[in-house]
Amino acid sequence: xxxxxxxxxxxxxxIIGAVAPFLPGAPLVLGGLLLYGYTTDWVGFSxxxxxxxxxxxxxxxxxxxxxxxxxxxGLRASRLASIGAFIGVILGxxxxxxxxxxxxxxxxxxxxxxxxxxxxxxxxxxxxxxxxAFVVGTAVKLGIVFAMAGYFIQHxxxxxxxxxxxxxxxxxxxxxxxxxxxxxxxxxxxxxxSWYLTVSRxxxxxx
Length: 207
Description:
Keywords: Membrane, Transmembrane, Transmembrane helix. This is DUF456 domain-containing protein. The chain crosses the membrane at residues 47-71, 83-111, 131-153. It comes from Candidatus Doudnabacteria bacterium RIFCSPLOWO2_02_FULL_48_13. InterPro entries: DUF456. The protein has nine helices and no strands. The model is unreliable at 165-200 and 202-207 (pLDDT under 50). It has helices at residues 2-17, 25-39, 47-74, 79-96, 100-117, 120-154, 158-164, 167-174, 194-206. By secondary structure, it is mainly α. The longest helix is centred in the middle third of the chain and has 35 residues, at 120-154. It folds into two domains: 2-154, no CATH class; 158-206, no CATH class. Helices cover 76% and strands 0% of the residues.
């Protein structure tokens, strides 16, 4: 139970990190997912899914480093603006810490475009393009971390039933965790209602 809570905290922190530049979003979510899988013997987990999530996590890191530069270039900023945005990411993190991921590319794109065109309006447009790229990149990262969080939530009920089979419900009835309804048999452990999660908590304590 404690490891499930720790995994959930990792994932919640990672979701915040997908928006807040001072936290590594997707790596934290992936770490929470892997921790939960490891502590539950990988019940119900797919190797393909984990591999895809690992690849997407690496992709989010690429977005953080190269996204502003590629976005500025894609939105018709000059080559120097794109280079400035890339250098801005590196110098921004070095000078301003994690917030430099946001500040650095904007200043770098502005400086690069202004050096290229000597036009402050074009420089401001390059900075705006970089900001748009940052927003789009953030949306992509949010989609990835929510997909991993959904995979985590989907597998929350599976461990008690898969680990203990039908016996976990028998124990629950014997220990009084849930009442037996008159004339009714044992409830299918494959069901995933809210009561199921409640019972699984009782059973985990009882076993």
